Amino acid sequence: MVKTIEFVDGKVRMLDQTRLPLEVVYVDCTDYHMVAEGIKKLRIRGAPAIGIAAAMGIALGARDVRAADFDEFMNGLEPVFQTLLATRPTAVNIQWAVERAKKLLSEKRHEPVDRLKELLVEDAKKVLEEDIQINRAIGRWGAQFIRDGDTVITHCNAGSLATGGYGTATGPIRVAVEQGKKIQVYADETRPVLQGCRLTAWELMQDNIPVTLITDNTAGALLRKGEINLAIVGTDRTVANGDVANKIGTYSLAVLCKENGVPFYVAAPLSSIDFSIPSGDLIPIEERGPEEVTHVFGCRIAPEGVRVRNIAFDVTPARYVTGIITEKGVFRPGDLHLLNEKDADLEAVMLKPGE
After folding, report:
1. What is the pLDDT of residue 355?
2. What are the distances in angstroms from CA 97 to CA 198, 307, 342?
3. How many angstroms separate the most distant Cα atoms in the chain?
4. Which value, to the nearest 10 degrees, does the dihedral of the CA atoms of residues 175, 176, 182, 185 take?
5. Inter-residue contact 320 to 257 (CB < 8 Å)
6. Residue ranges in the chain modelled with pLDDT below 50
7. Do residues 346 and 338 lie in contact, with contact meaning Cβ atoms separated by under 8 Å?
8. Peptide bond into 21 cis (omega under 30)
9. 152, 186 in Cβ contact below 8 A?
10. What domains are there in the chain, each with its CATH number?
11. What's the CA gap between 83 and 79, in Å, rounded?
12. Residue 1: what pLDDT?
């Protein structure tokens, strides 16, 4: 698998995903502004990956803060936090990374400032390592729902490129293949930025996993013909009641799966679950510039001056979600809140194949 991001030689090196699949180009970010720009411009994208980027961006920003004590250091970090938080509002992982950094610093407040800076670098690298292990755990839990001979559909890119490695939605697919199951994958192209076309299809092909690219509006026809056995998608923010925010078009796919009796699963690391929000109606939804719709690779495909709505995400209500695959197990949306409750008996409510 191609590396998405790493902290090396005092720089944050990220794969520029806007250049894929035509070129494999890495960008070295030397300060937090470059990291923030990379997130905003989609050079790095996917909720877990931008959470990792945020953690690394905080470490870069901390390096340039001049402070004599803890309070002065935290004040100096505030512009770093706010710049990163402002990049992409829907994905909760940036907020998660900021809160993690604040908690770490608070616990180590009596350390010298130079040591606090070192701790942020160490923890940013740890966030990357943990993410890969989390994805593998999601893969193991999710693979039990994929049978030998199944065809899986996925939307957008929740693969190794959207994470530290291995992938969330592609995690169960990878494990199923490793287990020797013969499966097929349909990848929605995912307009307007074509993450399914440019990224998911590309990375699955790199790993010799059978994948077929389809236009977004082909999914319904294939589901109606019985050619798809299950759907697995990622999430940018899942909330307490099990509603799921993901790339625009996810809601449509979930409704089509429900209509055709096809299970619809969401791969959600705990870092992407926001228990502070009770309902998906309260999730901030990003809208992006019109050029993503009117142009493809810089070439205009729409009439000059046409009005555009470019809504980047939609919310899939919990009633359309069969199960949510986390690193702790697979749960029905209505039981998700138990993951945030101390001493909850998770084994008793865990979703099992065939249920």
Report:
1. 81
2. 27, 36, 22
3. 67
4. -80
5. yes
6. none
7. yes
8. yes
9. yes
10. 5-134 (1.20.120.420), 145-349 (3.40.50.10470)
11. 6
12. 67
- Distance from C-alpha of 226 to C-alpha of 257, rounded to nearest angstrom: 11
> What is the C-alpha to C-alpha distance for residues 242 and 317, in angstroms, rounded to an integer?
7
194, 158 in Cβ contact below 8 A?
Answer: no
- Secondary structure E strands in the chain: 5-8, 11-15, 26-29, 151-154, 184-188, 211-214, 230-233, 237-239, 244-247, 264-267, 273-274, 295-296, 299-300, 313-316, 323-326, 329-331
pLDDT tens across 104-127, in order?
A: 999 999 999 999 999 999 999 999
Write the pLDDT tens digit of every residue in 215-256: 999 999 999 999 999 999 999 999 999 999 999 999 999 999
| Sequence letter at residue 159 | G
What DSSP string runs through 255-299? HHHHHTT--EEEE--GGGEETT-SSGGGS---B--THHHHEETTE
Question: Residues 6 or more apart from 116 whose CB is under 8 A from it?
Answer: 62, 70, 73, 105, 108
Tell me the CB-side half-sphere exposure of residue 312, using CA atoms within 13 A.
23
Looking at the DSSP bridge assignments, the partners of residue 236 are: none
- Where do we find the tokens 């959207």? 162
Q: Which residue has the tokens 């979703």?
A: 351
Give the residue numbers marked as catalytic: 236
Token digits for 33?
């502004």
So what's the pLDDT on residue 343?
A: 87
Name every residue whose Cβ is closer than 8 Å to that of residue 171 and which is 6 or more positions away in sequence. 135, 136, 138, 139, 142, 267
Q: In what order do the strands lie in the sheet with 151-154?
A: 211-214, 184-188, 151-154, 230-233, 264-267, 323-326, 329-331
The residues that bridge with 26 in the sheet, in sequence order, are 15
Amino acid at 151: T
